[in-house]
Amino acid sequence: MKKQLYIDRNGKRQSLEEVLGCKFLELIVSSPQPSTNYQQQDGIDGQLDGYTTFGPKTATANFYLKSTDIYEYQLLIRDVWQFFYSRESYYIASSDILGLRYLVHPKPFEYTRVNTTAATFSIEFEVFKGYGESWGTTLNDFTYDEEKWQIGMNLPLGEDLNYVFVNQKNFRVYNASDILINPLMRHNLSIAISGVGTPTLTNKTTGDVFKYNKSLKKGDVLVLTGVYPFFNGQHCGRDTNHGIITLKPMQYNQMELTGLTNSKISFDFPFLYVNK
Length: 276
Known about the structure:
single chain; 276 residues; Elongation Factor Tu (Ef-tu), domain 3; Jelly Rolls
């Protein structure tokens, strides 16, 4: 199987080899870029521990370009630029780890001429979020046939993962990420709740509580999208306790949903990986 670098853009996945015939050699992802905000206190040696955030890192893709003649060579190098450069960010993924992708912007690069019809080039991408994320989300089927999931993504072996719960007061939500899913950090997490009554969602593992202070009736849908709650599509933050839900990494989070009958709740989010 040939190595491929894929680009996910506008809901479509393409490889440069499929489009232009360039040979992809490898993708090298830099280490995590932690930054800790320590606190200095007078009269105490050293510093007090602070909070660590992860800055942007880089991913470098190496390629070999071969044309049939000098004229095609000139066309190809421009087609490669056109393929990679745009104003919008996009995802890249390597065939080595198809299930993991990175949201990037490309940096400038130049070609190294091998001869009159061939060249090599390395393009460095800025992974500006500082982490990779799963191609699939938790509402996709967890089958390796889809190529959205694979070994090495912290998925528990031999266990069926579920993210939709019907008429369940207590249930567990598995977070395969290697970092805390935290909407305050702009991590994608969408929780949809329906039923009859006044719902309260508690993550017993983290202590987080989200409460809607009004009543749902049959057909109503309450969605907590990151830090923003919506009732039937309309923002309803003032009708809540302004709580958020976070998910601890690489473990099951014990959840409780109370105040509803005929309840249904779903969790939709990609897994995040700082260390991959």
